Amino acid sequence: MFNLESKGNNPKKNNEDINWDKKLYPLYWLAYLLALYPVAKFGNRKPIIRKWHKYFAVTVAISTTVGTAYSLYGRIIHIYPYLPVTIRFIDGINATVNCITYAISIFSISVFGCNDLCAALRSSVEIDKYFKHKVANSSDKVKTKVVKFYLEFIFGQILLLSYYVYDGILWSRAVGFQIYVYYLLRSIQFYCNFILSLLIRYFVLLIKERLRLLNLMISHHPERIIMAEYDPKKNVYVANSKDVVKAYHLLLEQINISNSVFGTPMLFLSFCFIVDVLNMLLMWIVYSFQDNVEMKGVAFGMDMLILCCFSVVKDLITYLALVSSCDQTAREAGCTSFACYKLLYELSKMDNLNDSYTTKEKQSERHDFTLLAIQSSNVSVHFSAAGFFVMDFSTLFTLISFIMSYLVVLIQFNDRF
What we know:
Blueprint: H1 11-14, H2 25-33, E1 39-42, E2 47-49, H3 53-78, H4 85-111, H5 114-134, H6 138-175, H7 177-220, E3 230-231, E4 236-237, H8 241-289, E5 294-295, E6 298-299, H9 302-353, H10 360-378, H11 393-413
Antiparallel strand pairs: 1-2, 3-4, 5-6
Helix pairs in contact: 2-7, 3-4, 3-7, 4-7, 4-8, 5-7, 5-8, 6-7, 6-9, 7-8, 7-9, 8-9, 8-11, 9-10
């Protein structure tokens, strides 16, 4: 276990149990209501899981599958006869992929990945308490990140609400509310997948923040690491090397759990990004180059172009936020080896100044950090979409290139779609 003695300035405050995941409670509670997260609330030491939550998650997954089948049936009967064949095909795939993404994410996170996710959350409690006592103002730094989260969360909710209201008004006015009902479930699934993206993003960003604090302590506070003795003047137990090594291994374990639990959902979220953007761009092109495009005698006009543009921007922002969190965390993990080698250099300078640092204990600590530097150099930290590809910016640009290439070919060989 870590050395977690308080600093003595405010024992009541320093002995307070710390868990940074609690600060994202609104997002976790919303995901819990959507059956995308198994934890309803956090106790002092461990997450609390309702016994009936798995049954609730399975029920939601089955319900959304049945609802999607009903929605597709209504579209095929009432809407698809008036749409171009290509848009018909892409729209059907879009509905299917969104349904599969939501259902598989429920099973991957709330049913099969429940125990692994809870293990990661329990280890987070130990790591957060460790940084609370060993890194100055760590709680204040995390609070700044949480404020940023709330701003992003509110902005995302406003963006989605505006899109869904505009989408509902457009379709209801053009085809009637009775027919628009078949597209209403699509909007609900889009919202659920948006919450899923936020859930993964901030779970990964918390790992990144913990890695950043670990690297900060290793590179800028070597005096707190090379000592393990009790200081009677300050009433402090300073962390030793084995504490740092254990914290790093726990963070690696969290990354592995993230890949195991969130890997498949990230894969299908990528598919959703492709088909949704492709669907909206196709409709954009159709209603841009064809005059008087109507459905049952009702023309969409410029409203459809604005809606398509709005949808593409929404999808790009959402997927970019997901990819950027994975890419930033992987880059931060790559900085650990540099921080360790920097610490070893600082230790060598201290040895030249004071022979007391050449004791067996300090040699053992130097050995621990040498092994940690080698391990962090050889370990390739990344977030994988179920092993098919790595979630980074190169993947984002590859997917965008694929979408644009498909559109170019489609425009060249299909004049009327």
